[in-house]
Amino acid sequence: MPRGVWALGLVSMFMDISSEMVHGLLPVFLVTSLGASTAMVGLIEGVGESTASICKLFSGWLSDRIGHRKLLAIIGYGLGALSKPVFAVAPNPWWVLGGRFSDRIGKGIRGAPRDALIADMVPEGIRGAAFGLRQSLDNVGAFVGPGLAIALMVALHNSFRQVFWLAVIPGLVAVAVLAIGVQEPAHPGHAAATGSLGWKSLGRLGARFWAVVIVGAVLTLARFSEAFLILRAQSAGLPLAWAPIVLVVMNIVYAVSAYPLGALSDRWNRESIVKAGFLVLIVADIVLALAHGFAIVMCGVAIWGLHMGMTQGLLAALVADHAPRELRGSAFGLFNFCSGIALLFASLIAGLLWKAFGPSATFLAGAGLTAVGLLASLPLVTERSMTRS
Hints:
The chain has 18 helices and no strands. By secondary structure, the protein is mainly α. The chain has a single domain (3-386), classed as Growth Hormone, Chain: A (Up-down Bundle), CATH 1.20.1250. The protein is globular.
């Protein structure tokens, strides 16, 4: 595995420690300290993630156009680190929305160029393992961050704002590792001429790539923000200071499963594993909808994490499989843009359902959407249509 992939994985890990120190507490902070409704939580999560996806569309195109992916990644990670103090000083939910918006702009700027960097660094034979490794390291940060948030909440007597200030530190470490530890491979010389994302370029991406985009968007529409997992656990009796334990459990399972499943997909069929991930999400939603105790809720959270490990890195590898090298940044941007718009609608719908009918209806609706998405995607992920190029 190239050193640059490990370095990018560590960058993701430190930034996720920073982000999840905030995000693991944010839903409870919004509801209990700032008086936000669950519909507002859904709006903030949906707007944040869709903003990131819209930015990925343009940053991916720009990285193809200028041929410098690392520079855009540094700008994006830097913005993510510097947006954290907004949460610490927020007097109302609208400030949190602004902070989340800025943070997710940073994520959007860095996401597509970073994924395209990984695809540029590795040959096809280890592509699934490479994306799985980055995803696993990312999710090490995603469970270390909430765990650290719990310890700090206990030590600082439930001071949300002090924890948010401390979250700046690992974010700055991520920027330093990226600047020092990643060397960008030579970009195709003709990218500046052909990397422009116009109608002709869209046609060059091909039917196999667009099938992956549709499957990813349908899957995301059925999978709303993890903020609702935290609220579900709180409704089952989870104390405020322990709210981040939900993300710890989910991301441990995610981190442990993402790399081996990515490596398996290099030898087996990626699409079959993604389809199985749909089924696992249905099981997670049903468990979360019907659970009556905290322990059962956490089982549902763990199953949700397994679903993430079965789908997220593999979908990225499929994008790399089917996109021309000179259009990889644009391809990742398009994929994440479509998934982000789906996540906006999913989070808004989840918030409204929760407010009107409660948590059970929200997760049962998720299971139903997932089942519909699985049936709709079957013709798009056949061996014939999705064979790797």
